[in-house]
């Protein structure tokens, strides 16, 4: 349990979700990012998506939130906005194989991401602790090679509603 570092939510409106979750839990947010990706779903279909996302400020645990993309693996799952639980691993391939053996098939894959679905529809995202995410460095485990102060100068930022974001 100590390696869990985020819980992810797919919300219909990111700006509104940030306001609602922020008010409910007293959260502040990191800059909003946008990433273009191709995600492969559990049926082997590719989905070209633009993911608009953010993480809450603070550590060692964060809320990840993105604008849901209906009809793709980034859609809100069913009647909830809870999408997955993310946790750090040192060997991503070995962890993915372990989850598969335990009956948690891969729900979606993409560049450096894999999410597995288990009993009750709960989804897990093992996250490679060796892959740097500069804007999330404070959320890496203490003592890991990427742990440190976050950097927000990676140019994935943009404007979302009244939220100031640099491009």
- Please provide the count of β strands: 8
Going across the major beta sheet, what is the strand order?
1-4-3-2-6-7-8-5
Radius of gyration: 15 Å
Fraction of residues in helices? 10-25%
Which blocks of ≥5 consecutive residues have pLDDT under 50? 157-167
The coarse overall form would be globular
What is the CATH domain class?
Alpha Beta
Please give a handful of descriptors for the protein shown.
single chain, mainly beta, 8-stranded mixed barrel, globular
SSE topology sketch:
Blueprint: E1 4-11, H1 14-25, E2 33-41, E3 46-55, E4 62-67, E5 82-89, H2 92-101, E6 106-110, E7 113-117, E8 123-128
Parallel strand pairs: 1-4, 5-8
Antiparallel strand pairs: 1-5, 2-3, 2-6, 3-4, 6-7, 7-8
Give a structural overview:
- The protein is mostly beta strands.
- It has one domain: 2,3-Dihydroxybiphenyl 1,2-Dioxygenase, domain 1 (Roll).
- Helices cover 13% and strands 34% of the residues.
- It contains 2 helices and 8 strands.
- Strands 1-4-3-2-6-7-8-5 form an 8-stranded mixed β-barrel.
- A hairpin with a 4-residue loop joins strand 2 (33-41) and strand 3 (46-55).
- The model is unreliable at 157-167 (pLDDT under 50).
